[in-house]
Amino acid sequence: MSDSNKTVAQKPHCIRYLSRDLLQSLQLSVKEIVASIEHLILGQNLQQAWSAPKVVITPPDGRYMMATLAAADNPPFLAVKALVLNPDNPKQGFESINALVILLDSHSGLPLAIIDGNWVTAVRTAGLSAVAAKRLARPDASIAAFIGCGVQAHSHLQALAAMFPLKQIQAFGRGTASRDAFCRSAEKLGLMAIASQTAQEAVSNADLIVTSVTLAPQLVPFLDARWLKPGAFVTMTDLAAPWLVESMSAFDRIIVDDLKQEASLPKPLVDPALVCGDLTSLVTGDAAGRRTGDERTAFVFRGLAIGDLAVAGLAYQRACESSQGTMID
Question: Domain 137-303 falls in which CATH fold?
Fold first, then answer.
């Protein structure tokens, strides 16, 4: 990220609205997104960036409501994201998750931008996975499996295809329409796409596995880490909810996104005894990444507020540089 003070000072009384279509048109590269996230993660160690543990509300009807907060001095931004996941949304024609990000100047508190939170969530989640995969996956990974074929599968496909020499994807999902659409997206990238009949069939020979199963009260774990071949890397965007707890010890190395956040929450994502570190320690080198070609590794995460800030701030800067967005007086 570049210093945005000049951009902020031009029109401090205006707020820039960045829609999903506009954000997609910015065409931020995976390399840029990874670099932005890594910059702010390292900034935390220098006391130049901060994030608070997420706040979560879980009503008894199955909704999941969340708010995140992160700020930095370089660049001088503060991001707040509010998100609601409602498993019943698709029945009404809505996406399962809807969110909004508000960006402020972290020094003055002046509002800078209102940003489509669905885009930020998809891109930052794949970006966090990319930061982990860069250190935990085999660099020669050529087969990727996707359990769940929705928004996160598409964003992760774009990220992983840019980072690894992928040749083939294997997809498994509850809905055949979303699965087939996902396979077509992979084919457009020049990849062979296979619609797997079972989850085990999809993951058993894969080098990279992405699980993005929609969270719901009635979800019964059905994925077994013992199915994975040596050398596999898994990124779990779904709180590891679809994975059998008793199988998680099959991983040689598990990284979570934030140990402090985990310590503040009543139910850990994974047995703490199995966790080797978090994303910050992985980036700083305090936690080891992949050590051998045969290690089974996993990144299990709730979502890091620093990631939202990194992606929202990067998009805002790019929009300012190209004078894009709807200005609200």
Answer: Rossmann fold (3.40.50)
